[in-house]
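tool_call: predict_structure(chain=1)
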Amino acid sequence: MSGYPNDEITNVGHHLSVSNGEWNQQTIYDARNVLLTQHSVDVSQQTPEQRSGKIVKPPIYPNHILHPEIIPSLDEVPAELIKRRHKRFNDPSNIDSFEIEMPLAIASSLQDELERAVQHRAAQDRNHDQTSIPESADSANNLFQGVFEKESYPTIETIEIDEPLESTSRQNLPRASIYDKSSLREAFQRIKIAGDFDDMSHIEDLEDAVGPLLRAMVIREKYMIFSLQSFPPTVAKFLTKTLEQEDQSRRASSTVRANTEPKLRTNSGGTSGQIPPKHTIPSIPTRTIPPQVSPNQKLPIVENDPHPFHPPVIKRDEAFNIPLLEAADVCVKAEKGIYRLHIPDDAKGWVQVDYPVVDRNQFIDDYTLLSAMITDGPLKSFCYRRLQYLKSRYELHCLLNEVKEWAAIKSTPHRDFYNVRKVDTHIHAASSMNQKHLLRFMKKKMKTSGDMHVYKTKDGKLMTLKEVFDELKITAYDLSVDMLGVHADRNTFQRFDRFNAKYNPLGQSALREIFIKTDNYIDGVFFADLLKEVMSDLEDSKYQHAELRLSIYGRSIDEWDKLANWCVRNTMYSANVGWMVQIPRLYDVYRANGITKNFQEFLTNLFKPLFEATIDPSLHPDLFRFMHHLTGFDSVDDETKPEKPIITADMPHPEDWNMKDNPPYVYYLFYMYANILTLNQLRRARGLNTYQFRPHCGEAGAVTHLVTAYMVAENISHGLLLRKSPVLQYLFYLCQIGIAMSPLSNNSLFINYNRNPMLEYFERGLCVSLSTDDPMQFHFTKEPLMEEYSIAAQVWKLSSVDMCELARNSVLMSGFSHEVKMYWLGPEYQESGVAGNDIRRTNVPAIRIAYRYEALCEELRLLGNAYKSRQDRKEKDRLLHQMEKKSTSVANIEHAVLNNGKHESTSNLPKPISSTINGNSGNKINMSRNPTTNVKGAAFHKQAKDNLQSILDNFNAIIALIRVDDPQLNPIKDQLPRILTNTTDDFEIRVRAYNMVRAFESLLKLVSDLKDQAVLYDFRAINDAVKAQRQRFKNQQSDLDTKLISLRDRLALELVKFEDEYANKSSFKIPKE
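tool_result:
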């Protein structure tokens, strides 16, 4: 499965279509790879372009991302939602008429991938002299080839166990290898739903759902690519393949962003000039190949070393010894709350750099559309059924393959759950220790640093640590965890205010400032020492890692410098720890206290120092170094606060938001995302690391918070409210958006443990991981992450395979460097499916990875098939509409035939045909070009007259045979002999109808001959129209037969009644005429 932070849009060596080739060559790379390699590679090895700040050639984005409005099928989605907003149910006839091609066989590309992965692993086991088998261009292009192929299936719907297909090119691998394909084939039993899938009427609401779902996926792809965050390559290829044909057909009608070449220059005298030639621009691959292996090299043989790649070793004392870059000749200007990059131009002064930007109005349109989707009835029903199907499918998979999965991990030497890498992707630094750890630390400091001045009161008085506790009348002996009062209990349930108060030891904010703050009188020395003990515990465990969140409040412009100085001064580095910054949404508090004047000042305090440190590191040297170890941003606060849950175009811009009300959640996230986008573009241009946006979302509050996060966040924390929105949950699954869940935290605050949806998300295939959130409030042991896993395993009966999969997800979601992930997960971890998994490092069997990948591909294929069928149906409707306009002659024929008794003269019959042949007055075809053409034209003319005359004659005869209501005849006298001879009449009617069909077939043959002679202006339209008329007459014949049979039966009953009446009477007199 894919869809994780460092997954790229395309894979190296994959050949895509010509229309997207340039985009794939210039695809966005994750600059975090560049950042963290600077620890092992001297900064002086950077290219001159990176050091000088020149922006490399901007990537060419897919047209459906830049201009989704040019694809009508996606642009029509808002109108479709409005049209069916009040529709309670669908017309079954619409479902029955929905045609789709749905082959469910395993794509050959997937089978090839399994073979390549198995062969590659076996080759590594044998230390054989061969490299990994590259993926062929055809396989890459046809990943979703099932969308465009037709296959026949049995008409009886059954559930079958489908074994992987044999490949004719499979190599003979040793059976002893745990990666042997034959072993995998014997172990992995797949679930396949077989049946007649020529139409998709059995999948309700599929036609209504496919358009909105594809539009939503394109929206997320756009926002992720623009901000240099990750988007699953499997899904990106699916969207490109599905929308490619329609996109290319309209590419000429759209104007793609001008391919201008932005340039930066340094202040040391370098000129901007032209962008260097293409061969001088550094090529950053989408995945890093270990330096020991190249396409033309043999795999090195390393004795007793199962890990051919090792990350750079960084000593703590050298972690912040990073040389500063030269200043770049660029400036940033805040425009309506969003910082824009500007570069000097000799003619125009400062001009804006041409990089992808997100307009607020466009964001509002996308947000409004997604908000409408999550309330659409048919879409909700479809997504809920697909999620239930995925859950049931997983349960069947476990029943069939659980034993084999256990066998696979048991046969893996050395590796088990305890020694696989696992990352706590959601943990706050201020509460990263458990309550007992904090208690011991406070007692230790009271004994060793009691006479140290640690606190300054509001009146300016300095107090030692001993004096602080003396004022509270507490000694070190008296302290206990119960007295600390930092642990959550039943009283914090649904009370976020009480939970926030738990951050104050003994209920005293002064103790919080002394022990767990970075900016205090002692410059955060106690907090640094406390975190170093936490990091030491993680290093002792070796396989546990954490991404600690530090706070930036946005109250002043120097907050970033203070935090960076604290980190550098105290050498806050550990190989087991990554740093994130959380931004509380507390503008209303600052505005009420007069700290900030408007929301723009809040944004300036947050982002201006970051831009300055990136442009000119000498202005903020410590901040520049700290940013090398920063992985992302978070947005935190109580989501249950009342707010206006939507953003509208008439909302004030940040410089005009000077009221005391707090902006809504979506307002915060949009401006944070927009500025992170600009920052990432700038840092990528300078060859530096970029950042993820990973907010708290979906813990409580409105479901629309998740809509915003779906658009702009790489992954989220909590996500509990996804259980209330099947549409968003299904979209999170399709896009494989990471969700860091904390069941113990949720159990104390918002939802009981047994009701937590984490297990349901995991079974359905969402990318979830376990995290601790706040060990000080919710955990008891020294290893809170292991405590989280152990409780989940006990409550939900998770297997070792399940826990290892959760651990692997946590690594993929994390912001650790690409090189580190290569060591933890394997050099090919960015590949999709089995090829990206190394069981020797993850302890996740290939069976489980293959199942997840195939399930995702099947869902994507389902949408692709439905989309193709829908587009084909629309195209057929369009062509039929055109045919109806052009086939006036056929309409005249139908009118003449259906006119009872009103016959046109034979001489007038060929005129419609002649009109059809000639076409419009402006497009007449010259029939007298040569004698041969004239002769053939005359023959066609005569044959058409004969056929039409035959049709009319037979039709009149049929009418005459069934006319039983002549007013001049006595009804009983006229019907009696016909009843007695109805068999003969019925036979004659059938013969006449058969003659009419023969005449129509002759006309169709005539049309075919006319096409060969090229005498029709639009022979295809005429031919299709004639076929349609033929079908109509067949239908009319069937209706006529039904009416005749009904009439016969009714007259027979009348005859029986008449006979009974005649028998009961002594005489029967026929009325005189």
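agent: The first strand starts at residue 158 and ends at 162. Proceeding to next step.
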